[in-house]
Amino acid sequence: MTESLSPERMAAWRAYIETSQRLFTQLEDDLRAASELSFADYHVLVLLSEAPGQRLRMGELASRLVFSPSRLTYQISTMQRRGLVARESCPGDRRGSEAVLTATGLLALREAAPHHLASVRHHLMDDLDDAEVACLTRVFTRLGTRLRAARDASTTSRQE
Amino acid sequence: MTESLSPERMAAWRAYIETSQRLFTQLEDDLRAASELSFADYHVLVLLSEAPGQRLRMGELASRLVFSPSRLTYQISTMQRRGLVARESCPGDRRGSEAVLTATGLLALREAAPHHLASVRHHLMDDLDDAEVACLTRVFTRLGTRLRAARDASTTSRQE
C-alpha cells in the first residue's frame, strides 16, 4: 500500500512545514533579541498566567506543551534558576508538584508580550485576509482537538 | 503603541501555533518509532535527495533549514557518523564544503518515507477538504517567499 499524497496535498504539506519552521525560527530570534526568553519560556509563562491561581500541575503543563516529563523538568529548572517560576508541592497530594508563576515571571511576560505580538503581526497576521484567518482557525482548532484526543487515548490505553 | 491582535486573529494564532507544535511532536514520535531518523535528519535527506548531484553547499543547506552554522555542523556531524551523508570540499573552492547524500542515506529516506507520509496523511492531510488544502498552500507559500526575502535582505544589509 502506497501512502503517497496527491501533488496538491504534497505541495500544501511542504509549504506548511517549511514555512512554519522558518516562521518559528524568526519569531524566536525576534523574541530573544527583545527579551531574555526563549519560545518555550514564553509559552510556559503564557500558560501559567492564564491558569487559575497562576499555577499548573507538572503533568498538565507537560501535556499542554507536548513535552516529555524529562524535557519539562529541564525547562522548569532553567526558569526556576532565573526566578521566573517556582515549584511547589500540590496541596493535598504530596507526590505531585506544580509550577507557579512568580512576579518576576509575570513582569518578564508583560515586558516581552508587546514585542512578541508585534513580531507575530509583522511576520504572519498582517499578511492574512479575514477569510484566511478564519480558515487557519477552523483547520487548526479542529486538528488540535483531534490530536489531543488521540494522544490522551494512546496514553491511557498504550495501544499506540 | 499597543501591538495587540484582534480577538479573531489571536484565536487563529493560538490555534495555529499550539496545534503545529503538537503536530510536529506527534510526527517526530511516529518517525522515530518507524526509523532511526529525527525530523531534522529526514528534512536534510529530503533536501539532498532533491538537489542536483544529491549535494548542497553547507551555507545553502543552513539557509534552507533555517539552521545557524553551528547547529548545521552538529546536525551533519551526527548524520556523517551514521553514514547517512558525507562531507566533501566544493570543487573549485577549497574553503567551501558540501554535504553529499550517501547510498545509506538514500535507503534510509526511502524506507522511512512511506511511514512518514502515512503519518502526515493520518494526522493532517486526510482531515482537510480541498478548499482548506488550497488555503494552506496559498497562505504558507506566500508567507515563505516573504520570510526568505526578508531574511536574505537582513543577512545582506545587517540592518536587522
TrEMBL record, chains A, B:
It comes from the Bacteria. Coiled coil: none annotated. Pfam families: MarR_2. The lineage of its organism: Bacteria, Bacillati, Actinomycetota, Actinomycetes, Micromonosporales. It comes from Micromonospora rosaria. InterPro entries: HTH_MarR-typ (IPR000835), MarR/SlyA-like (IPR039422), WH-like_DNA-bd_sf (IPR036388), WH_DNA-bd_sf (IPR036390). This is MarR family transcriptional regulator. PROSITE patterns: HTH_MARR_2. GO terms for biological process: response to stress.
